[in-house]
Amino acid sequence: MDKIIRLFVVVITLFCALSIPVIGEAKNDTNIDFGAVNEIIEYQMEKHQLPGVALAVIENGEIAYLKGYGTAGNGRAMTAQTQMFLGSQSKSFTALAIAQLAECGKIDLNAPVQQYIPWFQVSDEQASKIITINHLLHHTSGLSDSGLKGILPNDASLEGAVRSLAKAELTAPVGMKHQYFNLGYSVLSYIVEQTSRLSYADYLEANIFTPLGMDSSTAEPETATNLSQGYSRLFGFAIPMKQAVPAYAVGQGYIVSTAEDMAKYALAIINNEGDLVSVEMMNQIMTPGIGSYGMGWIIVDYGAKIFHGGANETFRTDVNLYPRQNKGFVLLTNEGHQLDHFISTSQLKSAVESALLNSNVDFVKKSWSVRYYGWILGFIVLLLLVLHTTNFLALRKWAERIKTFSSTRRFVDVAISFIIPSCILLAVFFGVKDFYGHRFNLLINLFSLPTVLPDIFILMLVGIIPDYIQGMIKVLIWNKNFNKPK
């Protein structure tokens, strides 16, 4: 929480939360109080002013509950059949496809990537030869966002994304450290295409979506016909934002699905009856490696809890499975501001989890609303605007005022206009670097700031640019009035 308070700030959304009727009745033999679940979700939506949420609950091998809350945008109610982007939950589908191909004998999980992509290359030639499929699946390839060079355009192809890794530098020895790396799953998506001789989307459609009856799911987002509007925040208000979709990144974070379809998927995973892969292969998928990461899933407490989830700029996904209780839930939210991922949707997920597992949910009610951060942020921006306006007006008399200053005092007065914004930049740089860790990449993080944290981006501009402009004006005035030839 301290990192979040230091780094970002967000805020209010004035959206009414409309509920739609339950699709199907809750099972009679359930021990889950769905009335309490509804109350918790509605409370969290009101507290954080979340636009829309879709919930699916599974229990004892069945879909126990489906419901949508709030709005899907453009006058539409959110339902369990409304399509949304899955974010990094998409990785579990890519991993499953790889596992299926391995069972067919088309892939050896321990084989080097170069066996399937002969030209695969990173900046370290030796590492290029020993990075395996398993390394990519478990995020232990030694690659991370910190080692990337440049930014890929959204229209870059899957092959183009893989080829771009030729300049990527390792930030850890191969196989020795867990470093979450999105592009690794783009490489895996490309291997699915190369070994199956199908497009990634066609493979998933034929081998996962159709067998499970996931009729509203697709790895071709442009074909989605019932897609929810996505939202970010600006000073706390929910603002509709078009979700950009990098062509090369579908298998790492841009599959489209619904709460109902994801419940069918969750049942296939938790039941483990050999529908998609053998029981033995599913057990391998759910075997954690370094950092508790299996193959597209995170496994904790010796398998008592299995989850992943995903975060896009305008959507959030949470899929939590509890095999020992034979329960699980899917939460899809059409709000994707960075602070929501760490505050509002995190509280929502924890509250639903507590309700399903019959735990105390009162602790969530005591947590801050994401709106408070927005109010603080808005106040700071207004304060800075007033301060800068006052300083600019004072510049009209600055030349007269500094005539009585010593040269040292003049220098300090000018320098302060450059020192303060520079200190702000350094504080932001080291704060963001500390927050993202191995995923920090200055170029990538700066490029994404306007979409993942638009209000923080505005705060940076308001806090820095006016000071630099004032400093340059002071330098011009100084030169004009005190550096004249004698």
**Domain tally:** 2
Please tell me how large the radius of gyration is.
26 Å
What count of helical segments does DSSP give?
19
Q: Extract low-pLDDT stretches.
A: 1-25
CATH H-level superfamily title of the largest domain: DD-peptidase/beta-lactamase superfamily
**What's the assembly state of these chains?**
single chain
CATH architectural group of the largest domain: 3-Layer(aba) Sandwich
- Given helix and strand content, the structural type is alpha+beta
Distance between the termini: 60 Å
What does this structure look like?
The protein starts with a helix and ends with a helix. It is built from 19 helices and 12 strands. It has 486 residues and is of the alpha+beta class. It has 2 domains: 2-93 and 196-365, Beta-lactamase (3-Layer(aba) Sandwich), CATH 3.40.710; 370-482, no CATH class. Strands 1, 2, 3, 8, 9, 10, 11 and 12 form an 8-stranded antiparallel sheet that branches. Helices cover 46% and strands 12% of the residues. Residues 1-25 have low confidence and may be disordered.
